[in-house]
C-alpha cells in the first residue's frame, strides 16, 4: 500500500485555528498529544463495555519516550488505533472531527460525550516543535492492517504500510533544531507533571528504582532490594472524580498536600459535584490566609476531563474566591480555551454562580453547626466573606447572616447582633447608628479607652480590604455611619442632643485660637475650639473620616477621584478642649507662656497619634527632662 496526496486545508476549515494555536506556549503540544492518546484508550474501553470490542483490552497505558540520539519524541498508546482511511479522514481532512460520527454510532451510551477526542485539532500542534511527524497505527477492527503516515509540516503527506504489530498508535516527532529542549528528559518530565498529573489513563515516562522487601536477615530484620519499575507519572483517580461518601478527611488532606506540599493544612473544603445544567466536579480548599491578599491568588487549577488547562481561572471562579485553593474540572470547557471564550460562554457564567452559591452554603452550614469553631477560623475566613460581600450582590444577601464583626475585645457579632448591642449608646441626635472602628488598636489605644469609658464599642477593622468593606457596609445598612475612633473628638463622632457646653466668650475663643495657631505654625493644622468633657485631652488631632478614607483607598490602587484625593496634602483638625483646666492658664498667662503651654499640649496630641518625630520629638523630650 502506498499513497501520496495533499492535506485538505482551506480558509473555511480548521487551519486558521491551528495557526492561532501556534502562537501558544510550545510545550502545549505534549498535552495535546498525550490527551489524544488518553482519548484513544478511553474510546476502546467504552467500545468494549458496549460489546463492540470482544477481545481483551489489557492494561491501557500511554507511554512517552525520548531518544536524544535519534532526536525523536514518541507518544504511544494501545487504544483504538486507526485504519488508513481513518487517517485520511481525521488527519488529512483537518476540518473534520470524529466526534459527531462517534456520538451518532454509539448514542446509546449516556456518557459517550466523556470520551470524544479532539484528535484532528490537537494533533497539528506537533509541528510547533517537529520538522517531521510520523504516525504508526493499527486499528482495533478485525482484519485491519497497520498504516504509516508521514508529513514534514507542509500540506503534503504520505501513507504507506505500517510496521505496528499491536493495536494502538505511535506518534513520532522528529524534533527540529530550535526545539531540542524537548529532547531533555527533565523538561519532558516537568511538562507531564504539569499537564498529565491526573489523567484517567496511566501515563508512563521511563522507569524508576523502587525498594521492595526481600525476606529477612540472620537477625530477623527485613531486607530490601532495589527493583526497576515503570515510572507512572499520574494519579488516574484523583479525589474529585470520587463521591464524597467514599472519602475521609485524611483523603482530602492528603490530596491538598499533593497539590501544595509546602503549605499549612487548609481550614476546610468544599466538594463540587454537579451534572446539570453543566458538568462540574472539583474540590476547593479554604487556606489560612493571615491577611495575605495578593500572594495567595492563582492557586486553583482548571482541568477538562482531568487534563490540566490553566491556573488563570478569573472568569470561571468569582473574583473573591480566587483566594481559594484546589481544582475544578469541567468537560464543558474546551482544552484550547481563551479569555474571550470564557467571558462569552454561558456555561462559564453558570459555573461562576454555582461556585459562589456553594461556598455561601458551606459557610452558612459551618456557622450554624459550630459557631465557636467558625469564630476561631474567622481571621482567615473573614477576608473571603468580606471580599465576596463587596463584589457579589447575591453572595452578600446570604453572607450577611454569617458575616462577623469583631471588636477590640475579640468578641464576634453578626450585623444584626451588633446593631442590637450598640444602638442604645451609639445612636446620634439625628437617629444615625454610629459604628466606631480602629485599624490598629494599639496605635489608637487612648482613643479606644476614651470610647470605652463612655460605654461605646470599637470594632477592629484591620484586613487588607476593610477600607472598601466599611464603605460597602455604609451603603447597605440604613442610617448607619462608620467612623474611625480617631477621626474626630468623641463628642463629634457621636453627637448627642445634650452635648457639652463651654463658658468662653467670643473674644476668649478668638484669642485662644490665635495662641494655638502661633504655637503650631502649620497651615495644614486647622485649629477649632470644641466643647468637650473636662477630663478629655486638652488637644486632639484628627483627620476627617471621609478624606482619610479616600486616601486609604487611593493607596490600594483606587483611580479617578480617589487618586485625586490621594495626591492631596494631608490636612488635620486640631480640637482644643475649651473645658480643660489648662485653658484658663493659657488665657491668664503672658504671651511667651501662652505659646509654651499651647506648644506642649499640641505636641502631646501629636505624640498620641504617633506623629511627633525628628527634631520636634527631640525638643519635646528635652523640655520634659528639664521639668523633671
In terms of topology, how is this protein built?
Layout: E1 2-6, H1 15-21, H2 28-49, E2 61-67, E3 72-77, H3 84-92, H4 99-105, H5 119-123, E4 130-138, E5 147-151, E6 156-161, E7 168-175, H6 185-195, E8 202-216, E9 222-232, H7 249-259, E10 268-274, E11 280-286, E12 300-304, E13 307-310, E14 325-329, H8 339-344, H9 346-369, H10 371-376, H11 378-391, H12 393-399, E15 404-406, E16 412-414, H13 415-422, E17 433-438, H14 445-453, E18 458-460, H15 466-476, E19 480-484, H16 490-493, H17 506-520, E20 525-530, E21 539-542, H18 545-555, H19 560-566, E22 572-577, H20 582-588, H21 591-608, H22 614-627
Description of the molecule:
The protein is α+β, with helices and mostly antiparallel strands and 628 residues long. It folds into four domains: 2-206, 2-Layer Sandwich (Heat Shock Protein 90), CATH 3.30.565; 239-376, Ribosomal Protein S5, domain 2, CATH 3.30.230.80; 403-499, Rossmann fold, CATH 3.40.50.11260; 500-628, Up-down Bundle (Four Helix Bundle (Hemerythrin (Met), subunit A)). 37% of the residues lie in helices and 22% in strands. It has 22 helices and 22 strands. The protein has a nine-stranded mixed sheet, with helices on one face. It has a five-stranded mixed sheet with strand order 10-11-14-12-13, with helices on both faces. It has a three-stranded parallel sheet with strand order 18-17-19. It is elongated and about 115 Å long. This is Chaperone protein HtpG. ATP binds at residues 32, 36, 77, 82, 169, 339. Keywords: ATP-binding, Chaperone, Cytoplasm, Nucleotide-binding, Stress response.
